[in-house]
Amino acid sequence: MQTAHRINELRKAIEAEKLDALLVSSVPNVSYLSGFTGDDSLALISPGRQHIVTDFRYAEQVEQQCPGWQLVVRKDDLWSAVSSEIEGNGVGRLGFESVHLSHRNHGRLAAAVEGVELVPLTGTVEKLREIKDAEEVEKIQAAVRCQEAAFNEVKAWLEPGVTEKEVAREIDDRMRRHGAERFAFETVVAAGERASLPHAQATERVVAKEDTLLIDWGARRFFYNSDLTRVLCLGSVNSKFERIYETVRHAQERALAVIRPGVRFSEVDEAARGYIRERGYGERFGHALGHGVGLEVHESPLVREKNEERLVPGMVFTVEPGIYIPGWGGVRIEDMVLVTARGVQVLSTCDKDLDKLTL
Amino acid sequence: MQTAHRINELRKAIEAEKLDALLVSSVPNVSYLSGFTGDDSLALISPGRQHIVTDFRYAEQVEQQCPGWQLVVRKDDLWSAVSSEIEGNGVGRLGFESVHLSHRNHGRLAAAVEGVELVPLTGTVEKLREIKDAEEVEKIQAAVRCQEAAFNEVKAWLEPGVTEKEVAREIDDRMRRHGAERFAFETVVAAGERASLPHAQATERVVAKEDTLLIDWGARRFFYNSDLTRVLCLGSVNSKFERIYETVRHAQERALAVIRPGVRFSEVDEAARGYIRERGYGERFGHALGHGVGLEVHESPLVREKNEERLVPGMVFTVEPGIYIPGWGGVRIEDMVLVTARGVQVLSTCDKDLDKLTL
Questions:
Q1: Does B199 sit within 8 Å of A58, measured CB to CB?
Q2: Which end of chain B has fewer beta carbons closer than 10 Å to its terminal beta carbon, N or C?
Q3: What is the pLDDT of residues A242-254, one digit of tens each?
Q4: Given the DSSP bridges, would you call strands A21-24 and A93-97 parallel, antiparallel or unpaired?
Q5: CA distance B342 to chain A (A)
Q6: In what order do the strands lie in the sheet with A224-225?
C-alpha cells in the first residue's frame, strides 16, 4: 500500500501543533498510516522517522507490510518501549490520540516519559481518513460488489419458512465466496415488527409469507468496509408499509440530490429529515442520516444535524434515512456515496423499487 | 439471563471502595452485569439502583433484555445524561473503569460532574468475570461444540489445492450452521512456513500435498466465545516437524497436569515453558501460555510467567504452547479448560494425535 503521502499530510499536522512526535494508538489509524493490518501496536511519527512498536507475534508481519518503517519489538512493557524511542529522539512535546488512549494508559505513558509534554489531539488522523484516495475508493467499491452479489443471490434463494439467522448466515457466506474477508459488522436481519429495532440481531424468528425483512449488511474487502440496507417484501405489502417505504425512499432521494462539494453535512441531513418531518414521521427517525465508511464501518464524517463541516471530493459515506415504529416495524434504505468534483457518485447499485424488492 | 448475583458481587466491591456509584463503560462488562447485548451504552450502579444509559436505537432492546434496570435514553450528549443521573442520586464518589474510559471521555465526564470525586478502578468487573457460573460454562461449551463440529467436517472435506482463505471460509460457515452466531475472531489458517506468524491471516496461498496447516479458530454462541488451535498435516511429515509437534504436545500435557485450584498461573505457564526450554526451543515460544475466554475471546486471567495469582474453580482459559521458527513454520496446540473443584476439565475434545491429524 502507498502510504507515504498520508504520512506527509500527517507531518503537516504535527508541524502545525509544534509537536516533536505523535503517538498513534488507534488500530485503524496505525493501519492507515503504515499499511500494517494487525493490532496491539503503536505508531510513533516524528518529522524525520517513523516507528512501529509491536510485540513478538507481529514482528515478521510488520517487516513484510511496512517498508520504510523502523520496527521496535517490545520485550515486555509497551510504555517502556515507547519511552526508549522517545528519549532516544529528544522529544519534548509528544502528541497523543486522546480518544484512543485510555485514562489508564495515559497515566502509564505520562509516568514512562516524565518531563515530556503530552499534548492531547482528537481526530487528527481521522480527518485525513475522511478523504479517500483512489486506492481506497477501489477497495470500498470491491467491498460493495461483494455484498451486492451476495444480496442478489440471497434474494433469489429466499423463501418463507427460513429463519432470520439462516438469512444472515447465507448472506455472510456468499459475501465471503465473492471475495469478502468477512462481514463488516454483524448482519442485521429483522422480520416484520422486529425492524423497529434499528440494530436488531438476527434471531430464530421464522420469515413468513407477507413478512417484510429489513437487511442491513456489509462486507470487508482488502480491509475496507461497505454498508447497505434494503427491505425485502415476501408477498404483497399493505398501504401503510408502502406509504412509509416511499417516504423513506423520497427522503433519501432528496438527500442524494443536494450532495456536492461545499454543501454542509447538516444540509444533507436536513434534506432527508425535513421531508420525513413534513410527512409526520419526524419523531420516528432517531439517528443520524449517515456516517463515513472506510477502514472502519463507522467513521468520520457523521452526516447529521449538528455537523456544519462541508463536503469535500473523495469523502465516502452512507445515506440512510429510516422510520421506526415500535410494535409495527421499520424501514431504512441505505446507500453508499462518493463525493466527486462536481456532485455525487452512488457506489451501490442494488434495486430500491418496491416492486423489485417484492418476492 | 440471571445477573442479580453478579450485581450483588459488584456491590461488595463498590462498598469496599467506599463509592456511591460505579460507572461501567466496557461493552462486555455492561453485558455481563445487565444482559444487554448492544453497545454504545453505559451502566451506572449504585447501592440501591442500576441504570443503563443508551440511545434511541437500543431503548426497546434494553427494555427487553434488562428487567430490573432503569432505562435512560440520552437525547444527545452522553455525559450530560450521565451527569443528570448522578446529580439526581447524590453521588459524591464515583468509580469509573480506567482501562475503558478514554483520556478524552474522562475529561468530559469530569467536566459534566464537577465536584464529584472520580475514582479510577481497573479490573473490578473483569475479576468477577474470571469465575464463570454454570450458565456461562454451558454457553462456552456450546461454542466449543460448534467449532469442533465445524473442524471435524472440514478435516473430512480438506484436500490439497484449496486456498487458506477457502479453508477459513468453510470453517466459519460450518460453525454458523452448527449454531454459532459468528466466528470469535478472524480464523487463522496458515500453511507451511506461514505458521511462523502466530496471528497469520488466511491468504490465497494454495495448500499443497505434504503441507502442514495451522488452524486457530473459534465460535461465538450465546455471546460467549471459544478458541482452539490444531495443526493438520496433508501427507507424511518429516522428522523435524514431528519432533517439534511432540515437544509442543508434551509441553501442553505438562501444563494440563498441574492445573487445580490453588496453583499459581506462573506455575502452569512454567510447566509448559520449562519443558520447551529444556528441549532447546525456549526462544521460539514468545507468547503467554493462555488467556481467559468468555464474553471476550481474550480476557482475564492471563496464564503467564508473571501472574502470581492462584487458580480458582470456575475459571476458563486456554492452554496453548507453541514453537515458531521464521522461514520454517510453526506449531501451536490450544485447548480450553475449566478449573474444577478438584482439578481440571478439558472442554475441547478434538484429536491431538499426530496420526489422527494427518490426512
A1: yes
A2: C
A3: 999 999 999 999 9
A4: parallel
A5: 34
A6: A182-183, A219-221, A224-225
Q: Is A147 on the interface with B (CB under 8 A)?
A: no
Does A326 lie in the same domain as A223?
yes
Last residue of a domain, one of B113, B129, B145: B129
Tell me, what's the ipTM?
Answer: 0.89
**What integer best gives the mean pLDDT of chain A?**
94
pLDDT value, residue A25? 97
- Residue from B57, B74, B102, B173 whose CB has the most chain A CBs within 10 Å, to mutate: B102
For residue A48, what pLDDT is reported? 86
Q: Can you give the pLDDT at residue A87?
A: 82
Structural domain count, chain A: 2
Helix, strand, coil % (nearest 5) of chain A? 40, 25, 35
Q: Are residues B116 and B153 in the same domain?
A: no
Encode pLDDT of B87-122 as tens digits.
Answer: 877 899 999 999 999 999 999 999 999 999 999 999
Nearest to B56 among A55, A201, A286 (CB): A286
Q: What are the two backbone dihedrals, phi and then psi, of residue A226, each rounded to the nearest 5 degrees?
A: -145, 165
pLDDT of A61 strictly over 90: no
Give the number of other Cβ atoms within 10 Å of residue A186's Cβ: 17
Answer yes or no: do B121 and B169 share one domain.
Answer: no
For A70, A104, A306, A307, B149, the CA distances from B104, given in Å and listed in that order, are 29, 12, 20, 20, 44
Contact residues, chain A, for B169 at CB < 8 Å? 173, 176-177
Cell of A344: 455525487
pLDDT-derived band at A200 (thresholds 50, 70, 90) equals: confident
* CB spacing of B57 vs A198 below 8 angstroms: yes
CB contacts of B58 in chain A (<8 Å) are 199
Q: A327 at the B interface (CB within 8 A)?
A: no
In terms of residue numbers, what domain contains A292?
134-356
Tell me whether B196 touches chain A (CB under 8 Å).
yes
Task: Tell me which residues of chain B have a pLDDT lower than 70.
Answer: none
Are B270 and B343 found together in one domain? yes
User: Is some CB atom of chain B closer than 8 A to the CB atom of A176?
Assistant: yes
Q: What is the DSSP letter of B304?
A: S
A interface mutation test: which of B40, B75, B94, B104 has the most A CBs within 10 A?
B104
| Helix residue ranges, H only, A259-333 | 265-278
For residue B83, the domain's CATH number is: 3.40.350.10
Pairs across A and B, CB distance < 8 A:
96
* Residue A96 near chain B (CB below 8 Å): yes
Distance between B322 CA and the closest CA of chain A, angstroms: 11
Helices (H), ranges, chain B: 4-16, 27-34, 59-65, 78-88, 103-112, 124-130, 134-157, 164-177, 239-258, 265-278
Give pTM, 2 decimals: 0.90
Q: What is the pLDDT of residue A155?
A: 96
pLDDT of residue B48: 86
What letter would DSSP give residue A289? S
Task: Give the closest-approach CA distance of B99 to chain A in angstroms.
Answer: 5
Q: What is the pLDDT of residue A222?
A: 94
Question: Are A123 and A143 in a shared domain?
Answer: no
CA distance, residue B120 to nearest chain A CA (Å) = 8
**What is the per-residue pLDDT for A269?**
98
- Per-residue pLDDT, averaged over A171-183, amounts to 94
Given A75, A97, A129, which residue is the final one in a domain? A129
